[in-house]
Specification:
By secondary structure, this protein is of the alpha+beta class. The protein contains four helices and 16 strands. The protein has an eight-stranded antiparallel sheet with strand order 4-5-12-11-13-3-2-14. Helix 1 packs across helix 4. It holds the Pfam family Pro_isomerase.
Amino acid sequence: MNLKTVLIAAGLAACAPAAVAQTASQTAAQTAAAAPSAADWRVPNPDDVLVIDTNKGRIIAELVPEVAPEAAGRIRTLAKRGFYDGRTFFRVIEGFMAQTGDPQDNGTGASELPDIPGEFVFRRGADLPVVVADNQQVAEVGFVKSLPVTSQSMMLAPLTADGKVQGWGLFCKGVVGMARGQEPDSANSQFFLMRDDYPRLDKRYTAFGRVLSGQEVVNAIKVGEPVPEPQDRMERVRVLSDIPPAERPQIRVIDPAGPWFKAEVARVKAQGGLFKACDVNIPAEVK
């Protein structure tokens, strides 16, 4: 199987002398700039966090099995086996992504485990924790944990056989996706980290997580197709829950259901134009 290719202005008001009335958008922007409170943060499940130590620095990514259980499970399984330790970033494209996870380090290999099906879309029901950031008539844009998603409007759910609607992950900067060959169900061990927004991948590749910390490391990985030697590499990849408590980084990330995040969404909307989930900042803290 060849997995080498991943196809890819504020108005002034005279309410009082020399007074300036704030618009709703300005207020939203100021609110978003305020420091988050304790209630704005969540602690991710340590079983769903990858700690990727590379020669360029540490990357911490969150798996989101709620939308792609097969992909998230496969990456977790291989990480626990040490499969990714030493694997290089063999294909890295500026403005696109950094690909890794091949035991051959050239795009032609895979693990000994069977290929997994594509999870390009998912079924969204009332039980799926989607925080809707924008309702765009027939579609809703939001987040499942740190992952930006779009789905059909839930108003359509009563009309479907399973009471659910179709959703899909959005390939924004920092999103983690499964590489595959020409066949839709050919993903195995290879994955890629987005260096920029790339909506052409939406509904064509499986989005299963997002970088919480270390995007600057992703962007610093040596570029090439293929990358010339020496290639940057993942020196060690672990699931957070497997790291001894004394060594385990303490991680928290902004909760999309919290007030700070709602204010951040309002700030982005105030800039005008079509709302894009990729423009919304999701801070994380690592200690």
